[in-house]
Amino acid sequence: MTSREEYLQAALGAAVQRYEERNKRSRELHLAALESMPGGNTRTLLHNPPFPTFMKRGEGYKLFDEDGHEYVDLVAEMTAGLFGHGHPTLLRVLTETAGTVGLSLGATHAAESRLAALLCQRFGLERLRFTNSGTEANLHALAAARKHTGRRTVVAFSGGYHGSVLSFGAPLGKDGGEVSFGPGENTVDRDSFVVLRYNDADAVRRVFREREGEIAAVLVEGMQGSGGFIPGRYEFLLAIQEECEKAKSVFILDEVMTSRLAPGGLQSTIPGLRPTLTTLGKYIGGGLPFGAFGGSEPVMAVYDPRLPGTLAHSGTFQNNTLMLHVGHAALSQVYTPEAAVAHSARGEAFRARLRDVAGGTRIAFTGSGSFACLHVSEAWGRRGGGDGEGGSVTCKEDGGPEDEEVKELFWFYMLERGFWVQRRGNIALILDIPQEVLDQFVDAVADFIRDHERVLKL
Ligand SMILES: Cc1ncc(COP(=O)(O)O)c(C=O)c1O
């Protein structure tokens, strides 16, 4: 009888071998990419040993790779690909805008305030500014908080991810970076951050006592995204809000991922929650690069160019016409408030089925609405697999290290079954994905559990 470790090594070795045989063109393209980019990579998350799968094109909810395989896209561009590939309404607006308006006007134009007004109304913001990415939205929200309060310290949470230079230890998994729960090496201005455990309301109250008059802002996700779709608890988010109000600090809720979960964002589902600033990104540009931050008028006034001594916030493509026109169509015509409610409900039902098939194993599925994340370990299976969102796991440290080899095996397995999933386990649903395709994925998860029962038993 082989040990668990031997079983996993053998299964993974065989999966890698099959992958290499099935993806010869991807391997060639990877070797060529090594000549011009470090590791052949320009986006660390997409670095997948032995070499990444090179995609050629997308169509609706499907992707097609360079070696001729077809996949159901459950990565959905890390939630930004909500509309799938080539949504007809968005395509029409995209080509019309490019043809009749032009790409960048180098001037103020009406499409800016049209989308800004729509977003302010939908997400309950008084004022808003655009950026090119979610990372920039958070950076500028932090700058606003610091300017407004005249303080520097920012409280963030382990497992939190707020952009490429605002990462607080979201584990990337084997060969994809180290698991560390402090600010990463490339976290901007890292010494000014205090990093606490996610969902620890007591730690929040304590830090405000210990650092009285020092805290400019608390930066937090209402549900950790890259950190594994771990929902924030009501008491925790409310404690942040209360402490920020008392200390006149700025409460920044990062809704870059979560704003799609309900018509007014995740915050609209939490009674009494009203962050000072909200940051947005991902799907809102209809698939084009997008970011925005906004909220309290007095705080956002630090960017009012009519006032003396305010902050500059420039960026060549911040008011690019394609994003502004397509983004407006995406929110007003496609992802309407009703569509958001319906999509989240479908996601809830999908995740409930995933949890059913995974019950009693080392696998747990966390998430909310149209997001789900696979976690694998004994602790996750015991504590996170059962009742409620995330069971009793409330932060990364609670769940402990995961069985990264099993997660890898899952990744290779799903690729062979024609499902494009993230190696770290996050899944996001494209808007028009057919129900029977979701059912097929649930069946594939059940098959994976049956085929590898040996390493998944509790
Ligand atoms: C919660 C959260 N904030 C910010 C970002 C950064 O957004 P972008 O990749 O557009 O810079 C991300 C990206 O994954 C995110 O999930």
From TrEMBL:
GO molecular function annotations of the record: pyridoxal phosphate binding; transaminase activity
Keyword check for Acetylation: no
InterPro entries, sorted: Aminotrans_3, PyrdxlP-dep_Trfase, PyrdxlP-dep_Trfase_major, PyrdxlP-dep_Trfase_small
Keyword match Flavoprotein: no
Cofactor(s) needed for function: pyridoxal 5'-phosphate
Keyword line: Pyridoxal phosphate
Matches recorded under PANTHER family: GLUTAMATE-1-SEMIALDEHYDE 2,1-AMINOMUTASE, GLUTAMATE-1-SEMIALDEHYDE 2,1-AMINOMUTASE 1, CHLOROPLASTIC-RELATED
Protein family (similarity comment): Belongs to the class-III pyridoxal-phosphate-dependent aminotransferase family.
Name of protein: Glutamate-1-semialdehyde 2,1-aminomutase
The organism of origin for this protein: Monosporascus ibericus
